Amino acid sequence: KQANERKKKKEEEDLLTPIEKPIKTADLSQFSDEALNKFITEAKLSFKSSDNTFHEYLADVGVIQFDDKDKVFRPTGFGILLFGKNPRSKFKQAALMASVEYGNNKVEPKTFDQALVLIPDMVEEWLIKVLPLAKDTSSFKRKDIPDFPIKVLREAIINALVHRDYEIEGAKSSIEIDDNKIVIKSPGAPLPSISLEQLNSFKAPSISRNPMLTFVFSLMDYVEEKGFGMKILKSLYKEYDLPLPEYTFQEPHLSISFPRNMEAVTNVSEHKRIGELTSEELNGFEWIKSQGEVSAKDYTIQFGIASRTTSRHLGKMLDLGLIRTNGENPKSPKLRYRAT
């Protein structure tokens, strides 16, 4: 019976990827107390990091596994990534590289290679330091705030960490900031069931490459387990009057690029002819992207313009390949437009 159980366990382990398997040379001493306590606090758990019941909880989650032979818990690869003192000792690619370049001025590059649960707050502190400040006049008391919404970048960075492919050796996540754009890169192509078009229309299905990482981050309320934070990304136009980001893939990285203002769109967008739009037309195009699908009447009402002006704007965008219709007859009331 025991031999059959060992055989079954061996067969189950053979189905696991290297990052899912327990690391035979590791034990719980390689976990960071700071990372474990961060998880306990943010997930609102009633454990202490040294509690046996907490270790059993971590085993149920799948980040550690009990070694029957040596009678100790062994961290899995995901466990080391999430809570390890030095994740790169096992996974050299487990790092987020950050760089800033404003004109000829470069800020000292920064490497974030701590336990994954610690990185979001560290990156947020760094962003506050390196992003230029703007005046917030939304209340009676004026205050300085970063000139790009931190919560949007935080969401995109967490996505890059949680959904990346950790088995691509040598490929690291990164955030690159310059005068025109903020680019966040994550190793790994979109999953087969997720297309670039779905990502760029902010309608990607809720599928994660690393469900264990997603689960832990959702317990900490860092991500929505059911999605990619698309709602937050779409808020850029409506809440901040900023253009929406664009996803691209160039082996081995999936990138999301945020133009820092409307003027920067022409330098950032993959749509090479977008520079032929006037500022009014560009604003209209960004609005269409934020809405998903619109009618000519919607466009006319949104911008308070004449119907003939709407027709000119939409016609030009169609000619440039920036938008397409839903295939209805041009005179049909069901005709709708969406970004390509």
Please explain how this structure is put together.
The protein is an alpha+beta fold and 340 residues long. It has 3 domains: 2-87, no CATH class; 96-267, Heat Shock Protein 90, CATH 3.30.565; 273-339, Orthogonal Bundle (Arc Repressor Mutant, subunit A), CATH 1.10.10. The chain is 38% helix and 18% strand. It has helices at 2-14, 33-42, 52-61, 77-83, 119-130, 150-162, 196-200, 211-219, 230-240, 265-268, 279-291, 296-303, 307-319; strands spanning 64-67, 72-75, 96-102, 105-112, 133-136, 143-146, 173-178, 181-187, 246-250, 253-259, 323-325, 337-339. The strands form 4 sheets. Strands 4-3-7-8-10-9 form a 6-stranded mixed sheet. A hairpin with a 2-residue loop joins strand 9 and strand 10 (253-259). The longest helix has 13 residues, at 2-14. The radius of gyration is 24 Å and the shape is elongated. The termini are far apart. The mean pLDDT is 91.
What's this model, at a glance?
The chain is α+β, with helices and mostly antiparallel strands. Helix content is 38%, strand content 18%.
